[in-house]
From TrEMBL:
Coiled-coil residues: none
Database matches in PANTHER family: BLL1555 PROTEIN (PTHR36507:SF1)
Protein name, as recorded: EfeO-type cupredoxin-like domain-containing protein
Length: 152
């Protein structure tokens, strides 16, 4: 039986650990892309939207649910900055729901107009897209995710 060289195994184990951490953070949003829509729920506590980062394929709708006792919105940052406004749910009342139709591939940061501390992001990937594990590294922010088209 061969002895395991921990010096060479360490980077591989670190990479595996980072990948598993990424899946545990984004797992619910990635798993839900198998259905016809993705669910984003509002919450009282940070990160306020669950999941705070929803990664979805194009052609999928985002179903917004407000189970809290306060109205909230899911408003694309472009609506505030004068850029293209991809979606704005308006005030979603307690117990109400709203569906954001499928979006073209891209990044869609959003916030609650009534409570600007509430922030989230939707990343819409083209079909057959893979996320390169090597680009996630130690920075678990959306801006560090490298999106590439699959060649299959």
């Amino acid at each position: 039986m061969k002895n395991l060289n921990w010096t060479t195994a360490s980077p591989a184990l670190t990479g595996l650990g980072i990948f598993l951490l990424f899946l545990s953070i984004c797992g619910p949003s990635l798993a839900s892309t198998q259905s016809s829509d993705v669910r984003v729920s509002m919450d009282y506590w940070a990160p306020y939207y669950r999941p705070a980062l929803a990664i979805v394929p194009d052609g999928v709708s985002i179903h917004v649910v407000n189970p809290t006792s306060s109205p909230h919105s899911v408003t694309h940052d472009g609506c505030r900055t004068g850029g293209p406004c991809a979606f704005d749910t308006g005030g979603v009342q307690p117990g109400q729901e709203f569906t954001i139709p499928s979006l073209p591939p891209g990044r869609y940061p959003y916030y609650c107009v009534l409570h600007p501390i509430m922030r989230g992001e939707i990343i819409v990937l083209p079909h057959h897209t893979v996320i390169s594990q090597g680009t996630i590294h130690e920075h678990f922010t959306v801006t560090d995710v490298d999106v590439r088209e699959s060649r299959e």
